[in-house]
What we know:
Elements: H1 3-11, H2 14-26, H3 39-62, E1 88-94, E2 100-106, E3 112-120, E4 128-135, E5 146-152, E6 160-162, E7 167-175, E8 186-192, H4 205-230, H5 242-247, E9 254-262, E10 267-273, E11 281-286, E12 302-304, E13 316-321, E14 332-334, E15 340-348, E16 357-362
Parallel strand pairs: 5-6, 13-14
Antiparallel strand pairs: 1-7, 2-5, 2-8, 3-4, 3-7, 9-15, 10-13, 10-16, 11-12, 11-15
Helix pairs in contact: 2-4, 3-4
Amino acid sequence: MGEDEREARILDGRAWRDFCERLGRIGDVVLRDGSPETAFDRAEGYRYLTRLLRAGLESQLEFGDPRFPGFYQLSNETIKIGNDNPDNFYQNCTISGAYEYRITGTRGTVPYLSFGTKAGGYGSTGDLEPTGQIDAEALDIDEDGRFEIHVSCEPRAGNWLAMKPESRMLIVRQTFHDRPREEAARLRIERVGEPIAGGLDPLAFEDTLGRVAAFVEGTSNKFAGWMDEYAAHVNQLPSDDQAKCQRAGGDANIHYLQSRWCLEPDEALLIEARRIPDCDGWNFQVSNYWMESLDYRFHRIHVNEHSAVLEEDGSLRIVLAHQDPGPRWPNRLTTAGHRLGGMLFRWIGAVEHPPVDTRVVPFRALADL
């Protein structure tokens, strides 16, 4: 498409109308075979698409130019993607292997802090291939908690986060154990080099809208596809394909056990880890069908090594149920009105990855267990 046609499509509104019509078609993901057929689940599906739209606009439009890097969030309390971790504070940044960057900040007291660079994207290749990672344990941090990280394709002295020419995203994970009592790292990123003039390019605007729509479409279909896969082991919690998780933006220090759950009103799901290995942490969470963590602002839908109460022998027992089983089950989680959804157990920085057992029991039987 030539420059004159690009300008004409902006001037007469065709670019915007085509964008809106494409978003309308993307809504069919909520109606795909296998998705829940209740008004509740489908309303959540359409809300999910509005959340992805917000994330797409932030990542592709507001923060989409790698020449002017800045941190934004693809996941938070009201934007949720791919079993997002309720214990995490996520930060993202658009980057390019054509440039070099510098991250400066203060460490804070958050227990786990990692930085990863990725190639591709949900709206382009469909995956976020790992191209580099560094975590706080490997950082040189001064006595005041300050540090600097060089982000580049070529190695640099000091703290260095690797990129490749095809790198397109930087992901920061800050994982809390007890969020109200821990301090987040404070971070800033800048491109290294001479200043560059920038601004909105009207001739590139339609392409940007196309990337926004592709992000919404690619992300929603990707994780709906994962839920189709997990139908093979409902209410079980096997280790997932770790390479697949890494290609979706996962952290190399995390081992993921992932599946889906489905409970009738009179049923409960027991999740049992008979042994807790030496690790930096762990957590378990439940999500809806669209792989959005349930609303942890208002409901107890996850538990970690800080909030959990272990058995006398050091083992872990969690119960997920529609009803409250009472104080005899301190690690009790609610379905928050959902009949089915996703679930995820993470071993973080673990030297080994013991299995996590599950079993469905009648809710009334909990009193006798």
